[in-house]
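Problem 12. The chain below contains 475 residues. Write out its predicted structure in token notation.
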Amino acid sequence: MSKQFDVVVIGGGPGGYIAAIRAAQLGFQVACIDEWKNAAGGPAPGGTCTNVGCIPSKALLQSSEHFEHANHHFAEHGITAKDVKMDVAKMIARKDNVVKQNNDGILYLFKKNKVTFFHGRGSFAGQAEGGYTIHVAGKTEEAITAKQVIIATGSNARALPGTPFDEVNVLSNDGALRVGAVPKKLALIGSGVIGLEMGSVWRRLGADVTILEGLPTFLGAVDEQIAKEAKKAFDKQGLKIELGVKVGEIVNGKKGVTVNYTNAKGEAIVLDADKLIVSIGRVPNTIGLNAEAIGLQLDERGAIVVDGDCKTNLPGVWAVGDVVRGPMLAHKAEEEGVAVAERIAGQHGHVNFNTIPWVIYTSPEIAWVGRTEQQLKADGVAYKAGTFPFLANGRARALGDTTGMVKFLADATTDEILGVHMVGPQVSELISEAVVAMEFRASAEDIARICHAHPSLSEATKEAALAVDKRTLNF
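Solution.
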């Protein structure tokens, strides 16, 4: 006889483990199934985010930023550091330890919240009297039954047609985090979040980095003024970003990878690189879920079809995160996971897609929430804009990092904040104030009237809000 649960979550990434914990907090008997393994074959919950995404990439970004500061910025602080070297193996080992701490933390949270954890692959076996039967294939095989099922199986890296990932020379985000030595020449296809972050890591450590982007504009989803400022900074750092390219034949050889492409001028270029990172997006992960066993509806991309509340076409089956529509962001998955657990309990879970923040953890960091200036123009919305440069911020000067700005966009009539866009130091932290303000439908004037600590980077946020009314105090 199979074990019966109120809620079973398939997938232990940000959407899945958070959904399981919230459901348990609400009094349900909960199980979470996740198949991710660590190097020793043990459980490694946390999904792509913890294992080969957000967490390890930030660990490498931090290590490489320390190296960059030691080599290029310590001197201006009066610090002499000679013969600074990077032990790549140690850097990777530290990254792995950070990942393990997060894996172990999730297992602890399951135990604390009385969530039953199954290490293996979960797939639908069929409908049952108590809801749905789910097969777990791990070290041992078993079947469990659930009244409610939350699918949170995430996404996989999209490969270039005809160029599969071998994770030796042609790398996904997974292989990009496990490179054992600094490549002399590194090529990346795709100038999105992964491309820019991984390109930044290896550029700081000494690689000659070229990023190829098919689109004619840089960071098309970002406010144009902010994107231009970021591009200027990356160009200055030596990150080569080519826009409007057409990638042709890619040859993966013993000594590296050759990428043939046509640049924006129509010239044929041959790029030889030691490693190639492909970051052209991600695809929903429904392989092996056995959706057809219960008639679960998928769309043409393989994503699970859901309504605004994350309900699928089947009663008692829900889906959240990368495997459904919407932005593929860990924090979006978490919010959906909480909302679904609360909806199962008869509560009113809340996710506001208009106030989901976006961050790129390069240096300078890029962060935004709400609509861009080009979107407001396209929608015919009358707006006011205000900007403030970090160059005029005392804390940024003290940090020695004055690149970038904060930009506010507010309704021309009501002054309600419609979007906030930032490029500069630690803007990943500053953006939260804008998210809170937009959730409460604040005006630019509200932020302008709030006292901000001095000296702090957050004063740039206040000053940009003041700039909407053309009354900055420090610029």
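Discussion. The chain is about 30% helix and 25% strand. Students who got a different answer should revisit the alignment rule from Section 12.3.
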